[in-house]
Amino acid sequence: MPWLGIRHAGRYVCKTPDYVRAAIDRGEITAYRPRNQEHARWVVHTDDLDRWVRSWECSKKKSAAQRQLDGGRAGWVPCGEDNT
């Protein structure tokens, strides 16, 4: 289902509805509501949620190949860096 209410959008990205609302208020996520319907609920498209999640600062666990290059040390590398 590509359109989600705020509560389900929170579940989709493993965040609380309040966290999602705050991101909408900051302009990080686009939310939609039918025109001329003030009391209609806001909905978010999953493509917008996916884009938002991909924008987060994150780290990925090192791959076996990366650990071998690092002398066997385990750890994490920032997203966007080559971890192969």
Describe the structure.
With 84 residues, this protein is α+β, with helices and mostly antiparallel strands. The chain has one domain (1-75). It has 4 helices and 4 strands; from the N terminus they run βααβαβαβ. It has helices spanning 6-12, 17-25, 46-54, 64-69; strands at 3-5, 43-45, 59-61, 76-78. Strands 1-2 form a two-stranded antiparallel sheet. Strands 3-4 form a two-stranded antiparallel sheet. Helix 1 (6-12) packs across helix 2. The relative contact order is 0.16.
Helix content: 25-40%
How is the biggest beta sheet arranged?
Answer: 2 strands, antiparallel
Spatial strand order of the main sheet? 1-2
Write down the overall geometry.
Answer: elongated
Number of helices: 4
**What structural category do the secondary elements indicate?**
alpha+beta
What's the assembly state of these chains? single chain
How confident overall, as mean pLDDT? 80
- Compute the number of strand runs: 4
Count of the separate structural domains: 1
Strand content: 5-15%
Gyration radius from CA atoms, angstroms: 18 Å
What is shown here, in short?
This protein has 84 residues and is of the alpha+beta class. 37% of the residues lie in helices and 14% in strands. It has a two-stranded antiparallel ribbon with strand order 1-2.
